[in-house]
Amino acid sequence: MTQPNPSSTFTFSQPQPCPSYVGIIPDGNARHLKKNPNLKTYQAGGDKTTEIINEIASWVDPSSSEYVKGVVLYGLSSDNKSKRGEAVERVVLEQVLKQCRILLRKGCKVGFEGEGERGVRVRFNGDIEGLSDLKLKEEVKEIERISNERSGRGGEGGGGMEALDVWVLLNYSGREAIRRFGGLGGEEEERSATFHSGSSVMPFSIDLIVRSAAEFRLSDFCLYESSYAEFFTVDKLWPDVEREDFRSVREQWGGRRRRMGS
């Protein structure tokens, strides 16, 4: 594997360990809409998602050349799908898929001035077939088809980092994923083909989870993968979150002693 070039990515004044997988629970879009009824809140939230993923894609530990391998984004939970109705489901999905296409097309800009580029692969997990809009379901499949054709290597100037895997959870339930995982006996080969037919356990552990809007709940997010994740919350609604908030979280995460059950 080509080693990343730390000069092309964001680093801190002191060396910081780097999480391999980061989970994002982007909470507060609906509350932001109530406070700012004239703003296109879900569009602002979608744009913020792309900005934050670009930030995370830049994280690297210069002492070990480790970098973030993937981001898990809570796009739409099964509970929210059932509670909020088809109209909200459609708006949320349109914005999520729009940002997925932007990430695929442009990749992630890394470095202090965004001078480098890192490729992106988008993957989906959840009951995709249970989504209401047929057109959007087909778009999910098209985005993943394009991703599967990617070579896995970032573009020129990406510091040698492999493409960032962005897992988007749609119509997803962590409890359902564990139930189905038990039913499949934990067979990796069988699970790999089930991500669209229902919520599935993913083949990695999440190291860091960040939730906005000052909430301290997992809300059925990646219950199996988050067994030893460190949890942080940002006291801002999702559209108001800034890159600096995530840099602060990264620095605090680096200062925690992770005992992993010992």
TrEMBL record:
<dbReference type="Pfam" id="PF01255">
    <property type="entry name" value="Prenyltransf"/>
</dbReference>
<dbReference type="InterPro" id="IPR036424">
    <property type="entry name" value="UPP_synth-like_sf"/>
</dbReference>
<protein>
    <submittedName>
        <fullName>Uncharacterized protein</fullName>
    </submittedName>
</protein>
<keyword id="KW-0808">Transferase</keyword>
<dbReference type="InterPro" id="IPR001441">
    <property type="entry name" value="UPP_synth-like"/>
</dbReference>
<dbReference type="GO" id="GO:0016094">
    <property type="term" value="P:polyprenol biosynthetic process"/>
</dbReference>
<comment type="similarity">
    <text>Belongs to the UPP synthase family.</text>
</comment>
<dbReference type="GO" id="GO:0045547">
    <property type="term" value="F:ditrans,polycis-polyprenyl diphosphate synthase [(2E,6E)-farnesyl diphosphate specific] activity"/>
</dbReference>
